[in-house]
Model the fold of this input.
Amino acid sequence: MPVPTVLAAVHAALPAVLPTTVPGGALSTVDWPLVLRSAPTIALGAVRGTIPLAALSFVGGMVIAVGIALMRLSRNAVARGVGRAYVSVVRGTPLLVQLFVIFYGLPSIGLVINPWPSAILAFSLNVGGYAAEIVRAAILSVPQGQWEAAYVIGMSHRRALGRIILPQAARVSVPPLSNTFISLVKDTSLASLILVTELFREAQKIAAFSQEFMLLYLEAALIYWLICLVLSAGQARLETRLERHVAR
Amino acid sequence: MSPVDPAVPDGPAAPSRAEVGPALVTVTDLHKAFGAVRVLDGVDLTVHRGEVLAVIGSSGSGKTTLLRCLNGLETADSGVIEIAGGARVDFGARPGRREVHALRDRSAMVFQHHHLFPHKTVLQNVIEGPVVVQRRPRAEAVRDAEALLDRVGLADKRDVYPVQLSGGQQQRVGIARALALRPQLLLFDEPTSALDPELVGEVLSLILELAHEGWTMVIVTHELQFAREVAHRVAFVDAGRIAEIGPPDQVLREPQHERTRQFVHRLLHPF
Done:
């Protein structure tokens, strides 16, 4: 039986199951032409909004994360304190509030930032806080002997970190960082609240226009899910690649 | 003396004292404490060019710390280490990073646990120092590395990762990595202590060959039979000091000090 027929049958049966006070409107029929017409727009929202937003924020976040992780591992007490405070603030406040402070709050002290830069800034700062802890743990997981071996061949601290320690830490941090990235992809939907045109905002606009809320929001959910499936597959491949020199 | 360890191959006797040249390393009154524990308590030592010095002593006696200070991996509290050719570090005067690096530039260390870089192939491990730190031309470094790998009997392993090697092979790559730096001084920190017994021989015989080639080496070891065979002199470290130093036959067979006698006896007759 074709899927539409099944769904139509389900929907036809719904009024009998549901209390009569529930309006049948949105559920009674699936507007397949609307699905076909809206899908490209929402997908374009993903390609032009969600994906670049997540990718750029992740890159920015990783730069922040490595910096904060190094501060937290520093011998300098001030650097350690600043790093710890940063992580505490970022993890202790909601992302939505961080986004609103930057986009709606900063203008009142004269700092107006456009929606896109605001979103990238907020997401980068946020991801930076979470990923800093992952990077810190990953650096600590590399045996001390690796530092010493690097020093013995004449490397400075910085070079040892870049050539010997971070490449090994990267392998350890792929699974947790993949989680962070996948969370970030979904969190970018919050950017719709500061007027960034992305996947969810496109779905909202069509929903408001067509009044097909259930349909459009399920469609948005499905597209997020598909993106995350692709990312999970990518993670698996990356892990295999990075583990080729490791004994199990 | 115990029967000859089968792991140590028969070879020519240790190079004679006459081949040994002028002082290469001079250590003067070296002190180092970890908290309240005085690990090094006034070490004075001279290692001559071309000399092989074996350092023995019980765990915690300070022998490994001494070795690590020679390489700047550990910072002593006071005392002076000088390596001929311009490296002189006075630890009492809070030396800068540059001075400590000068020590490191002249020596190379082989660790108990090889500490090869697991994300790099055997060849990449060996050329990392020459190419990245010493900035030698890559082609030249690769040529040298291949010769060294051939030297340690692992030419066919150049493109495999360390995890694919046996413990003895890993340690031999560790030695090749140290030699590639063209150091004046080779430091070995219990190079066979982490190996399965049947893999000890291949590493010891390689070190023995290097000794005959004239490398200056300081070897911290528990293999007394090996020490006797490879070293010009044996130093017995006890309670942060060099309690006794001299030719192997003297220190290992006719120790002057009671502590040395006990230690040697314990190692030769474990039960």
Q: What stands out?
A: The beta strands of chain B are 23-34, 37-48, 52-56, 78-83, 87-90, 107-110, 185-189, 217-220, 233-238, 241-246. The domain at 17-268 of chain B is CATH 3.40.50.300 (Rossmann fold). The two ends of chain B are 15 Å apart (CA to CA).
